[in-house]
Amino acid sequence: MKLTLFYAPNACSLVPYVTLTEAGADFDVREVNTGAQEQKTADYLSINPKGKVPVLVIDGEPLTENVAIQQFIARRFPQARLLPTEGLAEYRAISLMAWFASTVHPHLTPHARPGNYTDDPAAHASVQRVAKQALWADLAIAEGLLAGREWFFDHFTAVDAYFFWCFRRAGQFGFDLSEFAACSAHFARMQQRPSVQAVNAYEREVMARFAARAG
Ligand SMILES: N[C@@H](CCC(=O)N[C@@H](CS)C(=O)NCC(=O)O)C(=O)O
Fold first, then answer.
1. Given a cut of 80, is residue 188 above it in pLDDT?
2. What predicted TM-score, i.e. pTM, was given to this entire model?
């Protein structure tokens, strides 16, 4: 099986990068420079008409949406135990990932791209203020779920990889996240994992390549 991940630095394509690495999967990476709008080119849109990363191309067939990609990886590499498979836990894992995708992620994007939410530049600060309040409510829920636990389930899963990206992205906007002690401890635990160290190093390389190309 040939796997190719379309990946952009800082973006949520980090999620399947970490999960594929945790799975021990053999995969290629195609770097997408979203700063240069490569995701909106005709070539890219022919792979993903949504013009977003990630895409995981599986034997030539594109699969989009982190919720689906994470489940694909977990089922394809069962020995890595990347999602619970028993009882309600299986569905609670999907429920959490759906929440990250449908709610938490949209409360992050306005801090990078307020223009996606209003065509009035004077309203950017207001959009960001409201998104931050909503993000804080999300993080308070995650804090409750992680309190006293190492991982969302009884061992590391793809859900942890996904939440790691959400929390990392929030930190990249310069927010002080220290009040979320359990989330911060989860983040620190994730930073120790070789998969995360690999993606951090790879991200630095890609960003340096893009910067060199931009001159
Ligand atoms: N619902 C999608 C979200 C994908 C998404 O929004 N990706 C962002 C990066 S985090 C992107 O490609 N943005 C580029 C753009 O909007 O032009 C998923 O979970 O896979």
1. yes
2. 0.97
